[in-house]
Amino acid sequence: MSTINSMLSGAQSLFNSYYSNSNNSKSQDSISKLWNAYGSYESNANSALSGLSMISSNVSSLVKSYDDTKNTFYDEFDETISALKKSAENIKGYNFNVGEDALKTSENVNEDGEKVTTTTKSAALTDALKAVEEFASNYNDTIDFFKNNSDVSKRVSRMAQTFADTTYRRANYQSIGLQIDSDGKMKIDEDKLAKAITEDPDKVSSILGKDGLAGKAEDHISLASSQRDRLFPSAQTLIGKDLTSAAIYTGTSYRNMSNYANVGNLINMMF
Of 214, 188, 210, 204, which is closest to residue 102 (Cα–Cα)? Predict the structure, then answer.
């Protein structure tokens, strides 16, 4: 560009000098128009190049934002699914037979003469309750993850519905102290669960273990993992319109630059 501009500037000086001593006003006017046309094309081309640079910058920023969002989504997905998988495996093989004396209740009379009931739990029962609470918490987190991201894609929305299917077995879960909300999330009634574990550990194992909720959770985890790389939509799907617009403007810029080059070639041919 600088070489062409220097040549044209030099050519303009030469012609100005020549036509200052010439009476050929018609030719001078023609050269003047040609020079003005070149200046117009140069301005248009510079504007197009500036627009192209801005579009390129905006598209790059958009793609980076997409990549950051996608990476965050998959980081949360991996963390959430990993935590649930670990706690589900623990519950699936958990031995809930903690013994009948794992839960003891005693009554005492306080200083005011009132009866006070005290409940004590064995270490084994306490550990069992913590295992169930951890599993329920991780399951709830998984429901929240897919529900909060359900607008990302239809696949994510379907996964949210899949993990929320605990509602259809609500009665079974509630019988051992797991309260099920309308969205499938669980709340634990610790006293009821503790009683169920000590009185009927086989029932608890059946409802929560490999043939129950933990086994079902693993099926959901397997499904989610198999679809992992297809859950988040492609960049073209999300920002396709913007990329198309960028291509259109880029094409305009190239046309303007072509016009710019043609004017320069025309002048070079004349002189």
Answer: 204
Q: List, for residues 69-88, the tens digit of each pLDDT value.
A: 889 999 999 999 999 999 99
pTM: 0.68
List Cα–Cα distances, 229 to 150, 152, 156, 225, in angstroms.
16, 13, 11, 8
> What average pLDDT does this structure show over 148-175?
91
pLDDT class for 55, splitting at 50, 70, 90?
low
3-state secondary structure of 211: coil
CA-based torsion, 223, 224, 228, 233: positive or negative = positive
Q: Which residue has the tokens 């992992």?
A: 228
pLDDT in tens, 243-271: 555 554 444 444 444 444 444 444 444 44
Where are the domains positioned within the chain?
2-58+238-270, 71-236
Query: Which residues touch 103 (CB under 8 Å, ≥6 apart)?
Result: 119, 120, 121, 122, 125, 194, 195, 197, 198
Give the distance from CA 238 to its chain's centroid: 11
CA dist 197 to 137, 169, 183, 203, Å? 19, 19, 26, 8
